[in-house]
Give the backbone structure.
Amino acid sequence: MNNLLVLPLLIPAVTAVILIFLKDRIALQRIISAVSAFLNIAVALIIVYQVKTDGIQTLFMGGWMPPYGIVFVADMFAALLVLTTAVVGAAGLFFSFASIGEERERYYYYTFFHFLLTGVSGSFLTGDLFNLFVCFEVLLVASYAMIVLGGTKVQLRETLKYILVNVISSALFVAAIAYLYAATGTLNMAHLAMRVAEAGQGGVMNVFAVVLLLVFSLKAGLLLFFWLPDSYSAPPFAVRAVFGALLTKVGLYAIARTFSLIFVHDPGLTHTMIGWMAGATMILGALGALAYQDLSRIFNYNIVISVGFIAFGISLATGDSLNGVVFYLMHDMVAKALLFFIGGLIVAVTGTEQLKQMGGLIRHYPWLGWMFFILALALVGVPPLSGFAGKVMMIRSGFGELQVALSLIALASSFVVLYSLIKVFQEVFWGGERGEEEIHPLRYKAMMAPAAVLFVLIILMGVGAETVNGYVVQAGTVLADPAQYINAVMKE
Amino acid sequence: MELLIALAIGVLFTVGVYLVLSKSLLRILLGTTLLTHGVHLLLLTMAGLKTGAAPLLGEKAETYVDPLPQALILTSIVISFGVSAFFIVLAYRAYRSAGMDDVEGSKGERR
């Protein structure tokens, strides 16, 4: 029992409720938001430390012992993701201070922001399938509001589609939960894992597994990403950064968790399926990233590619590849947030999203330019930056498992990432000066600060990969050996 | 009884999917509502219908109904209620300010 586990939910949730009452006092809203974000980071750090020293932490809500009642579980995987969420969330918050505009701030932007964080952290920490659904809904409802806030025509149009896709996938999620409950009589993930192992995962259990995979793929944008590039182009960059960094990753986390804990007995079907979905996602995402000439599309298809890449690691399901998944997930959350921060800065100084109308920014904004260049290298996986370690572990075990085709696709997708981002770099930062807008230097600096923090983080994660790896391996071990998770939850 | 409910769920799913596939925004809205109704009924049916007394301590019955699915449905209904309300308001707003009442008009302009 560890009551601390509820705080990553409680802090943002309480903050969000408080902020509702401070509608017109924007300065106060910002201060409270910032304090809450830092508190959240502190709590997440403590949780990571506790998991490191004492192993998997659990919290039985209301004292109901599992399998009854809702259980919160923090293994290293969940703890690390909660920490990354807290950090990215705080950075996103500070980026919003500088860029989101007073109108949105007045209309409960920060409230939705904190509810989003509640849902994301909850999804990582919960050990109950139905509670996972509830946390998904919390973050989705907040994301609906954040996409549409502002109410331009594009936003209205994209939000309608985004909600429709998610309502249907949520309906399928509940249906899958209903079937699983009928078949196993439990919804506690650890208990589910035991029951599925006893009953044998064949026939109808595989159907449930595939329905769940479908649901999570829709949320993660794994193969079923048709909604993603449009929806993520609608809101302002601060919102996109948080979405790109956190939302798809929650779907990936759910896939990683269910298919490393519950449905592990028929990898020939489920994991092969994830593998090929991942391959197709990487190829299609690559085509998209190459085809478009505007910033937001290229960035959005880069999200799709990395989703495919991480799913490739999940499908391999070796100890090494799961370590890679954990490492790369953390890297990608930070890097994608930074990518969209920089995108936001570029658009703020040029006033357009079309590459053809930009150019020559390196003269006035050298820091921005080189930051983008190094970030591109990090996303490709050039050592000593943060993307390298995760990629190496996944691709190495890909070849080790003789998944040559998929590994080659994964490698090739890295080159596409490199090409598409360097193309952006060339068009935006080189060439003649075009399309510059006046931006207040103070505002520029305020937007730059959170980006710089994440930038330093990317370099630190790369240079200190050995230290980070100590934590990552602990996370990967639990993923590779679900018995540890089950014992930690069911022991008492 | 289970068979009857199963048929009802099937009908709800069919009608829901049919409506979601249509062009009109209003039909799509109704379709998602029916779809979620179907899912809720499924959740209820999956635990078995009326297998014992109400799950209260004072009943002193041989067997009790499983209370968990009912708690789940309650949660799920509340969520779908909120989401539907938001969806309807959004569709209305899209209709009022952007003149959108079918998904044909909501295709993204390709760049």
User: Anything to note?
Assistant: The first helix of chain B runs from residue 2 to 20.
